[in-house]
């Protein structure tokens, strides 16, 4: 997929202040709401340089410690809550689409009085890309369990992608491909493409009506799967990332330098001597 095509990917999602209940681990969104384009945080393999620490949104999501409420809160304040967890069945989904096709979008939101002023960059984004299926009123509270489950689900999909690079038996490969298709297609069922005209830049644009932030991240994962890069696991931090070069091993300069420093320390120490073994261990009789 060419560079211009990726640059024209756009969607609208919402961030807000969060009320956090530390005991229950529940995050509740509170106005004011701010709109942004999640695809601004997507990097193709061709755009990644050897020394960059840029990571697309799915890999930043997977790097969050889901047991640490402060890390989860930080991610959700920057990118928004994940949104609805399960796609609707066909009947409910059809009703859902009909409802939002007739929804007036930014004008109706502004009448409710809790969206930013129309002169703001966020409102301009909505007016230009005002095709989002779910408004901020559809983003309910989220708990730590929901965040954790979403991570486990995406990690499993990446595990299947990596397994398919191995020489699996035909039956096992077919089963793995089927599982991956079901997982990814299920998550993408809350998205649909829209043709939009970008007034500011004067070109046609592929917009995406997204039902959840999770769906947008699976779309980015799909682009990585179809693109020239390799989805890898960093041997240092163990987190998945997109390798932009054939020789890429580590997810960031930080992990690469950590490995090199450890190797240098190990070389300086050298192999343990007999004296060292007697000093630090028990002497054999």
What does this structure look like?
It is a single chain. The strands form three sheets. A three-stranded antiparallel beta sheet has the order 1-2-3. With 285 residues, the protein is of the alpha+beta class. The termini are far apart. The chain contains eleven helices and seven strands. Helix 7 packs antiparallel against helix 8. It is globular. The longest helix has 20 residues.
Strand content: 15-25%
- Along the chain, the helix and strand elements come as HEEHHHHHEHHEEHEEHH
Low-confidence stretches: 1-5, 87-120, 126-134, 275-285
Instruction: Count helical runs.
Output: 11
Radius of gyration, whole Å: 23 Å
Give a quick set of tags describing it:
285 residues, single chain, 11 helices, alpha+beta, three-stranded antiparallel sheet
What is this structure, in a nutshell?
Helices cover 44% and strands 16% of the residues. The protein has eleven helices and seven strands. α7 runs antiparallel to α8.
Task: Describe the secondary-structure layout.
Layout lengths: L2 H5 L5 E9 L4 E11 L20 H6 L6 H11 L10 H12 L4 H7 L8 H8 L13 E2 H20 L6 H19 L2 E8 L4 E8 L2 H14 L3 E4 L6 E4 L9 H17 L4 H7 L5
Helix pairs in contact: 7-8
